[in-house]
Amino acid sequence: MTSKLEIRGLNRSFDGVPVLKDLSLDVAEGEFVSILGPSGSGKSTTFSVLTGALSPTSGEVRVDGRLLSESPGRFAFMPQKDALLPWRKVIDNLTLGLEVAGMRRKEARRKVEPLLETFGLAGYEHSHPAQLSGGMRQRAALLRTVVQDREVLLLDEPFGALDALTRARMQQWLERVREEYRWTVLLITHDVREAVFLSDRVYVFSPRPATVVECVEVGLPRPRTVDAYADPAFTRIENELLRTLLEEEK
Ligand SMILES: Nc1ncnc2c1ncn2[C@@H]1O[C@H](COP(=O)(O)OP(=O)(O)OP(=O)(O)O)[C@@H](O)[C@H]1O
After folding, report:
1. Angle made by CA atoms 38, 41, 42, in degrees to the nearest 5
2. Keywords in UniProt for this one (predicted)?
3. Any ligand 1 atom below 6 A from CB of 189
4. Which atom of ligand 1 is nearest to the CA of 205?
C-alpha cells in the first residue's frame, strides 16, 4: 500500500504524562480509515498534531512522503462541535473557511453552491444555523470542511451528538457521497458499528497513552447500504473490535 498519510512513532506528553506512545498509522489515497479508542486515550490529541495545533515530542507525519513540518496545511479538520457561527447565514458559514484563506466571497459562493444539493442544504442558504436540524448542521460543517480542497479530511466524532436515527441516516448519506467524491478520510468515532459501516480499515487505540493495538481490514463490498448490517462478516468484525476495546479497558 502506498500511503497518502503516514504517521510514524509519534510521542506526545503533557506535563510529563505520556498521551501518545510510539503511535504509527497509515491511510492510503481515497481510503476511509477510522480510529476507535476509549475516552481520553489520545484520539483528539492525534488530530491536534496533524493539524499543527500541537507539536509531537517525537515522531513524524508525512503526506505524500513529505514531512508535515515542511508542508503544513494538508488537512481539513471538522471538530466535534459544528462551530457554525449563529449570526451568519448558512451560505456565509459555508464560505467562511475559503474567505479566511483569502478567497473573495463571490468566488467562494461559486465553489460552495454546486455542493448544496448533495449536502441537502439547497433552499437553506439564507437561513441561520438555528433553523437547521442537527443532521443539516453536521452536513453544513462537513461541506465547509470538504470545500477547502485539502488532501485529507479529519473528522472528529462528526455524528456523536445526533440521535440514533439521524445518525444512521447520516452514515448512509456519507457512504453514498464518499463513493462519489473518494475523499481520503480519517475518522474518530466511539461507535463500533459506525466505524465498520463507513471504513475500509479500523485502528483500535489503547487507553492512554495511545498506541495502536489492532488494525482491522473491513473488506465488505461497497457501496454499503442498510443491508450491510445483516452481513455475517459485518457482525464478526464488529464483535472482534468490541472485544479488543473491552479487553483493553480491563
Ligand atoms: N492541552 C492539554 N494539557 C494537558 N493534558 C491534555 C491536554 N490535551 C489533552 N490532554 C490529556 O490527554 C489525554 C487524551 O486526550 P484526548 O482529548 O486526545 O482524548 P480522546 O481520546 O480524544 O478522548 P475523547 O474520546 O473523550 O474525546 C486526556 O487524558 C487529556 O486530559
Report:
1. 135
2. ATP-binding, Nucleotide-binding, Transport
3. no
4. 21
Q: In a mutational test of the pocket of ligand 1, which residue from 10, 17, 44, 249 has the highest number of ligand atoms less than 8 Å from its CB?
A: 44
Cell of 190: 466511539
User: For residue 133, is it within any domain?
Assistant: no
Q: Which helix (H) or strand (E) holds 103?
A: none
Over residues 229-243, mean pLDDT: 96
Query: How far, in Å, CA of 69 to CA of 57, rounded?
Result: 13
Residue length of the chain: 250
Q: Is residue 88 part of a domain?
A: no
Closest CA to 40 of 61, 60, 19: 19
Closest CA to 59 of 211, 214, 248, 216: 211
CA pair distance 155, 188, nearest whole angstrom: 6
The CATH number of whichever domain residue 192 belongs to comes to 3.40.50.300
- ipTM value for the complex: 0.94
Query: What pLDDT band is residue 248 in, cutting at 50, 70 and 90?
Result: confident
83, three cell numbers = 462551530
The answer, yes or no, to whether any atom of ligand 1 lies below 6 A from the CB of 2, is: no
pTM: 0.93
| Domains of the chain: total | 1
Q: Which of 11, 17, 23, 45 to mutate to test the pocket of ligand 1 (most atoms within 8 A of CB)?
A: 45
